[in-house]
Amino acid sequence: MKNNLISCILSATLVAGTIMGCGTQAPQEQPSSDSSVADNSKSQETTITPNPDFNKSLIEFVEQNGFSQENYMVSPTSFRAALALAASGADNETKDQILAAMGFSSMEEVNAWYNSVSSSIDNFDSLLKEAKKDFKENKEWYGDDAKEPDGAFQMANSIWSNTDASGKLSKDYIKYVQKNYDAEAENVDSSHITDKVNSWINNKTMGLIPEISGNMSDVAVVLVNTVYLRTSWLESFSDYFTTQDDFTTIDGSTVKKDFMQQTKSYRYYEDEKGKFVVLPMNGGINAVFILGEVDDIMDKLKDASYEEVDVLLPKFEIESSFSNNELIDYMISQGATLPFTEDADFSVMSKDMSLVISDIIQKTKIKVDEDGIEAAAATAIMMKESAMEINEIKEFHADQPFKFMILTDSDTPEPLFCGQLVK
């Protein structure tokens, strides 16, 4: 298996030129360091070009920087949402660079993207409610071991201001992120900020991510996003068919894993380079599992046809931490250099403090078993003051390194989580 497969599977995801037609809510007026101007960074022409595919380039960067031979999972959605909080408080070229690295040209595009994700959450809640109702009304048609559909899909944002810093956050900025991203705003002193932020993240991720950092006492501002998903398979795997077997790791050795198995009609795609199967989940979520070297999976989804597929999938858990400047290095690789230097302009966020991004951390965790998937991501941007028919049964046996994607089931699927299991 080539190490860069996952860098190719997201080429048709949301980009600036496609999200504007999603029928989302109109974006709100943007905050500015000058109240007479809606967006100072757009008052003159800029030559900064938006990243054509944020999701693809992020996955590619992660794999090229230490994770190609490791189990991992990253959340493009959580990272992008945290960056939206930062972009909202930036101005001039600093704002332009952050937006371009995110794949956008304006805050209007950011807000349209965010609203599309929020719509998927609303759709999840609606579909889950319908599934619960159907289960209760037609329980006799379900199997004896069937469980009531259950789940949760939540995204949350918060901004934390250290009261021991030299200044405060702008009221206009707080109002803007509350209105557009439903962000909670908290003022807390340096002796309590670490516990407060970690406790908030632990609560929003249902305990999957209990801590993002062990010490944030010297940070002036923390911008946080969390994404949490718990949902069940539309066709649950039976514990009875789970057996232990060999999984061939990326280095060719074998380890024992518990494999779930069932044969059902699933959307399936295969070509000379590889294959994938789409497992539908309650709430309008799809889990896509990929073997081999299928290119442009987001495009190939429409070519997948319903086939009888014998699915063999290991139960697994993955925890990942991107806390060694990987995400800062990614932003710099995309041309966003100013946010990390003393020339950064976050004057929209605060007129009192000269802020600079000092760290970006993301932690993720996923559990996959017979009942379904539970996954969470937390991203924190730390800011300091800069004075620093009987068909042939297809076979999909994931007993070797494979990739996975958890997508919203929408016209423009949002990659909530992406990762791989290789050992």
From TrEMBL:
<feature type="compositionally biased region" description="Low complexity">
    <location>
        <begin position="32"/>
        <end position="43"/>
    </location>
</feature>
<comment type="similarity">
    <text>Belongs to the serpin family.</text>
</comment>
<dbReference type="InterPro" id="IPR023796">
    <property type="entry name" value="Serpin_dom"/>
</dbReference>
<dbReference type="InterPro" id="IPR042178">
    <property type="entry name" value="Serpin_sf_1"/>
</dbReference>
<dbReference type="GO" id="GO:0004867">
    <property type="term" value="F:serine-type endopeptidase inhibitor activity"/>
</dbReference>
<dbReference type="Pfam" id="PF00079">
    <property type="entry name" value="Serpin"/>
</dbReference>
<dbReference type="InterPro" id="IPR000215">
    <property type="entry name" value="Serpin_fam"/>
</dbReference>
<dbReference type="GO" id="GO:0005615">
    <property type="term" value="C:extracellular space"/>
</dbReference>
<dbReference type="InterPro" id="IPR042185">
    <property type="entry name" value="Serpin_sf_2"/>
</dbReference>
<dbReference type="InterPro" id="IPR036186">
    <property type="entry name" value="Serpin_sf"/>
</dbReference>
<feature type="domain" description="Serpin">
    <location>
        <begin position="55"/>
        <end position="423"/>
    </location>
</feature>
<feature type="region of interest" description="Disordered">
    <location>
        <begin position="25"/>
        <end position="53"/>
    </location>
</feature>
<feature type="compositionally biased region" description="Polar residues">
    <location>
        <begin position="44"/>
        <end position="53"/>
    </location>
</feature>
<protein>
    <submittedName>
        <fullName>Serpin</fullName>
    </submittedName>
</protein>
